[in-house]
Recover the amino acids of this structure.
C-alpha cells in the first residue's frame, strides 16, 4: 500500500465516522463510536509498546524504528497514534533534503520556511530549465514528499505558487469524535 492508497483508506474511514455521527438514534450511534474508540485505543497502546520495545533494543531496534518511521504507510499510523519517534519539523526537513538533489536536476530549489502543527511553508525557485521544471511540477514533487513524511500536515504552502491539494485528508482527521463532541452533536441535533 502506498501513500495515495493510505489516504484513500483514511478518507473512507472519515466518511464512515461521519455516517455514524449522523445516526439520529443515540442508542445506535454511541455503541458504534465506543467500538471504534476501543479499537483505536487498543491499536494506540500496541503501537506505543512496539515503539518502546524497539527504542529499548539497542542500535538494531532504533535502526528498525527509523526505517519503519520513514515508510509512508507506517509513518501515517505512527502519527495517527501519536507515537512517531521523530518530530514533525525533523521529518519535514529530512524530506526536503531527500528531494533537493532531484529538484536541482530539474532546475529548481526548495527552502523550508516554517513548520507548524498543520502547515508547512516552503519557498520554491525554478529556473524553468529542464524536464518537469515548472514551478507547479516542482511544487507537486515537494508536496508529495512532504506529505509522505508528514501525513498530519493539512496544508503545504509554496510561496508564490498556488496549492494543488484537493481532497487530501490528513490522518489526524480520521479519529472518532470525543464524548464531548458526541454530546454537542446530540444537543445540536435535538
Amino acid at each position: 500500500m502506498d501513500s495515495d492508497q493510505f489516504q484513500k483508506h483514511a478518507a473512507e474511514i472519515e466518511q464512515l465516522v461521519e455516517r455514524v455521527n449522523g445516526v439520529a438514534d443515540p442508542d445506535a450511534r454511541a455503541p458504534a463510536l465506543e467500538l471504534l474508540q476501543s479499537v483505536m485505543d487498543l491499536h494506540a497502546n500496541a503501537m506505543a509498546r512496539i515503539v518502546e520495545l524497539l527504542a529499548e533494543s539497542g542500535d538494531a531496534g532504533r535502526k528498525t524504528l527509523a526505517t519503519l518511521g520513514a515508510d509512508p504507510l507506517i509513518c501515517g499510523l505512527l502519527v495517527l497514534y501519536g507515537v512517531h519517534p521523530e518530530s514533525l519539523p525533523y521529518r519535514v526537513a529530512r524530506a526536503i533534503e531527500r528531494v533537493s538533489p532531484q529538484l536541482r536536476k530539474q532546475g529548481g530549489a526548495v527552502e523550508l520556511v516554517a513548520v507548524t502543527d498543520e502547515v508547512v511553508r516552503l519557498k520554491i525557485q525554478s529556473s524553468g530549465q529542464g524536464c518537469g521544471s515548472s514551478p507547479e511540477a516542482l511544487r507537486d514533487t515537494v508536496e508529495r514528499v512532504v506529505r509522505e513524511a508528514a501525513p498530519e500536515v493539512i496544508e503545504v504552502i509554496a510561496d508564490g505558487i498556488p496549492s494543488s491539494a484537493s481532497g487530501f485528508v490528513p490522518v489526524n482527521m480520521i479519529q472518532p469524535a470525543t464524548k464531548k463532541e458526541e454530546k454537542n452533536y446530540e444537543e445540536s441535533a435535538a
Observations:
- Confidence is low (pLDDT under 50) at residues 165-170.
- The helical segments are 3-21, 26-56, 58-70, 72-80, 88-105, 135-149, 179-189.
- The chain has two domains: 3-86+172-189, 88-171.
- The first helix runs from residue 3 to 21.
